[in-house]
Amino acid sequence: MTTFVDRVELHVGAGNGGHGCASVHREKFKPLGGPDGGNGGRGGDVILTVDQSVTTLLDYHHSPHRRATNGKPGEGGNRSGKDGQDLILPVPDGTVVLDKAGNVLADLVGQGTSYVAAQGGRGGLGNAALASARRKAPGFALLGVPGDLQDIVLELKTVADVALVGYPSAGKSSLISVLSAAKPKIADYPFTTLVPNLGVVTAGSTVYTIADVPGLIPGASQGKGLGLEFLRHVERCSVLVHVLDTATLESDRDPVSDLDIIEAELREYGGLDNRPRIVVLNKIDVPDGKDLAEMVRPDLEARGYRVFEVSAVAHLGLKELSFALADLVGRARAAKPKEEATRIVIRPKAVDDTGFSVVREDDGLFRVRGEKPERWVRQTDFNNDEAVGYLADRLNRLGVEEELMKAGARAGDGVAIGPEENAVVFDWEPTVMAGAEMLGRRGEDHRFEAPRPAAQRRKDRQAERDDVEREFDDFEPFEG
Ligand SMILES: Nc1nc2c(ncn2[C@@H]2O[C@H](COP(=O)(O)OP(=O)(O)OP(=O)(O)O)[C@@H](O)[C@H]2O)c(=O)[nH]1
Ligand SMILES: [Mg+2]
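^ thats the input. predicted complex w/ magnesium ion below
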C-alpha cells in the first residue's frame, strides 16, 4: 500500500561558511611578503522548489534531516575557499511552509516557486582582505558563520479547481473517474478514499482539475472520521461540489439533511464560505434515487443551489455538469488577480539589521542582541588575542560599549552577546574595550614599516582615520 503523506516536519541545515585563512606570503629573499590568506567560501542554502513531477512529501517523511554543504576554508596564496553547494529540495505544487508554531512562512504554488528555508553562513575573511593601511599584516582571520538551522513543517494542500465533498460512498471518486481519466479506488464500503484523488477534466476549451477528499461524516470538523485532516485540500479550490447520494439505504439520511450536515462541517472548519457551490444528486440510475432526486430538487433550488442530477455509473448528466463546472472555474480564474507564473519567496530579513539592543536582565546580566554583533562574535577566533581585539573594535565602533555604559554596566559585569541558548558571555572590561583603539592598532607589524618623513606620517594618520570610518562597513563583502 502506498502511504500518502501530506504533513511532515523537516529539519534543514544550511552549510557553514568556511573560515578565512591567516597566512603570510613568503619568498626566498622576501620573508615577509604581506598577508595572503584567502577568504572562506559561503555555505550552501537549503532551498525548497516546486517541482510538478513530485506529488507527495513522502521522501521527507522518510528522511527529515537535510543539510547543504559547507564552504571550504580559504588558503594561503590568496586562494578563496569554494562556496558550499545549495541543496535544492523539490516539493509538490501547493506546499505550504510553516514554522513550528504554525505561522505560514511561504505558500509555494506554481512550478519553480522557491523558498530559501535556511541561509548558508558567510565565509570568514582571510587576513589579506582584513589588511588595511592601518592594519598592514593582520595575524588573524575571521571564522566562517555557521549556517542556519531551521525546523519547519511542510503541508500539502492540493491545488485543484473543483473539490467534491460529501458523505462516504456518495460517489465522489466514481464521479472523478468518469469526468476525467483518473482511476481512483471505488468500492461500496465507506471510507474507500483515504487520500485525495486528482483528475483533469476537459470541457470544451477549458481544462480544469477536480479533487475529492475522503468522505465526511457528522463531527468531521471535530476530528471524526478521516475528513477534517483532509479538508485543507479543499481550501485552495475555487468551486465546491456537494455530491449527494439519492440511493442511500440508511434510514436517517436524505439528500437535504446530508447537505445540511456537510455544510455545518465546512462552516465549522472555516474559510470556505465564499466558494461558489453546486449540488450534484448522484445515482439517479437507481429508480428510487431518481424519484428522490425529483422530490428534493425544488427544496435545494429554493436554497439557491444549481442542482445537477447525474449517474456516475450510467453516465447520465455528466456533460452538462462538466460544462457548468468549466464555466464556474473560468469565472473564478478571471476574477483572480493575475499571478506571476513563478514566484520567488525569500525569507524576510530582520527589520533593522544594522541595529542592536542592550537589555539588563533580572539576574544582572547585560544582553546584547543584534544581527551584526551576534555574527561578529561567531566570526571571532577567541584563541587569538588580535582577533578578539578586532571584535572589541567592531563592537565599540557600532556603539555597543556606549550603550552598555548607558544601561549601567560596570567593570566585571557579565555581558552576553546573542540569544539565550547561543550566547557568548564576557566579563566586561570597559577600559579595555572602550580604549581598545588607544591601546594599539591591530595588526601592525613594525617590520613592515619603512622609515617615513613626518609629513608622510601625518598623511598616513589621516588616511588611517578615514579608513577606520569605512572598514567596519566595508568588510561585509558577502552581504545579501
Ligand atoms: N448505482 C450507482 N452506484 C454508484 C454511483 N456512483 C457511485 N456508485 C457506487 O457507490 C459506491 C461508492 O462509490 P465511491 O465513488 O467509492 O464513493 P465515494 O464518495 O468516493 O466514497 P468514499 O471514498 O468512501 O468517501 C460504489 O460501490 C460505487 O459503485 C451511481 O451513479 N449509481
Ligand atoms: Mg472515494
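The first strand starts at residue 7 and ends at 13.
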